[in-house]
Amino acid sequence: MKYIGVKDDQIMLAGISEQSLVNGPGLRKVYFSQGCNHHCKNCFNPETWQFGGGKIISIKTLIKTLKEERGYLDGITFSGGDPVEQADKFIPIAKAAHGMGLNIWSWTGYTWEELMNKAKKEKVIKEYLENIDVLVDGRYDYKLHTEEYKYRGSSNQRIIDVVASLKNKELVVITKFNP
């Protein structure tokens, strides 16, 4: 999706959480993408749905800031909105984070299977997946919500080991986490 007024070296973000303990394991920096087509009922972040909202930020500035802060972070997370809508913008951030030894988690309303189909037609989706470590997939379903689910909003969502799934060419779901 092309964002009006956003240059190739920029990204549209709804916001950034500097120190999160709930968007993946450890202390994380979370980038909230602006724009989502899923519009899940009772979404946690409905203000991120509009593609015209948010703030335009330089990708180089985000990477520079991440380098300065990497010493206390365990990883970064792409959430939203839906970061897949700006996959091309998140790729350089993910590559830089990996170069700093950080892991990358991403949330999306798309299922793994939908992304695999998109990746056949859109090279950028394949590259995006190749540059993240863990994907929480699927639309949020408020009827399936409970606080018992670590790192996901509803039981239909899966926590996917992207690296293993791509290597093995079959879905690898993470069911247990180290404390």
Structure description:
With 179 residues, this protein is α/β, with parallel strands linked by helices. The chain has five helices and seven strands. Strands 3-1-2-4-5-6-7 form a seven-stranded mixed sheet. The N and C termini lie far apart (38 Å). The model has no long low-confidence stretch (mean pLDDT 91).
Question: What's the SSE pattern?
Answer: EEEHEHEHHEEH
Share in helix? 25-40%
Percent of residues in beta strands?
15-25%
Which residues sit in consecutive blocks of at least 5 with pLDDT less than 50? none
Mean pLDDT: 91
Features:
179 residues; seven-stranded mixed β-sheet; 7 strands; globular
What's the layout of helices and strands?
Elements: E1 10-20, E2 28-33, E3 55-58, H1 59-69, E4 75-79, H2 87-99, E5 103-107, H3 112-121, H4 123-130, E6 134-137, E7 158-161, H5 162-168
Parallel strand pairs: 2-4, 4-5, 5-6
Antiparallel strand pairs: 1-2, 1-3, 6-7
Helix pairs in contact: 1-2, 2-4, 3-4
